Amino acid sequence: MMAVATRMRRLAVSAAALALVALAYWAPPAAATFHEMSIREVYAGSAAHPDSEYVELQMWAAGQNLVGGHSIAIYNAGGGLAGAVTFAGDVPQGANQSTIVAATPAAESEFGIVADTGMTPGLLDAAGGAVCWASVDCVSWGSFSGSLSSPPGSPAGAIPDGMALRRTIAPGCPTLLEPTDDHDNSAADFSPVFPAPRPNSVPPPQHACGPPRSPSGSGKGGAPQTRLKRRPPKRTHDRTPTFRFTSSEAGSTFQCKLDGKPYRRCHSPFTTRRLSLGPHVFRVRARDASGKLDPSPASYAFKVISKR
Q1: Which long-range contacts (CB under 8 A, 24 or more apart) does 75-78 make?
Q2: What is the pTM of this model?
């Protein structure tokens, strides 16, 4: 009987061990969650593109991409819920510092991105409002007077036209976002910048800060400077002119626009579509590896005239 009891105890221990192994194998890693994520950037559109809106989240630890079923809540100036963006599923990339973008179709068009999830236009108001991620992190701005589940401290000012509100850890340096960087205070954590949404498909460029960067030819705050190297004459018969351009920072990408069209990703040389007769304006701006956009895009005005 004693031998039988001993054998039964051994079998029970073995079964328990197997259960623990199975649980460890099938259960997701403890770090894989959505809690270690903060709001990085809020863009409420501009006078020229009022429906171009997006909210960007950033992970400050690896494996925070399990966002399926969780929501971004958007509030109006009075604290009422204007709407919410709920992720239908998880995003694929879960590297440390990865970002996730919820954007309207107009924002996708203006910035040449494919958003990680869609967003209804008209939810964000640059004059005042707030955004919360899954009751974990919030930011408010402007005339917001409501109360939030995660207090954002003193609201930042209204978002200037055409600018985004971005969490800024160390201006001019592409730093890592870390828990200790968060003051939980909109006024201290966020500042207006030129919008530069980065969807989850784009690898994060952030790294630990070293000495302040001041690359040769860079503009204010380390932003790249864009220069036109080739352009058509001021009065041209060419209805598909070609432009060549360069950046003061190696590894930059470019965004081009023609007349009132939105910026779209482009590369040098860039040949326009067939243009109508009359005046036109071409603009191009560089974007460096850290996401900074040239605040003063290169611009060139010209006129297409008929051949005689």
Answers
A1: 75/129, 75/130, 75/131, 75/132, 75/140, 75/144, 75/146, 75/148, 76/125, 76/128, 76/129, 77/125, 77/127, 77/128, 77/129, 77/142, 77/143, 77/144, 77/145, 77/146, 78/145, 78/146
A2: 0.60
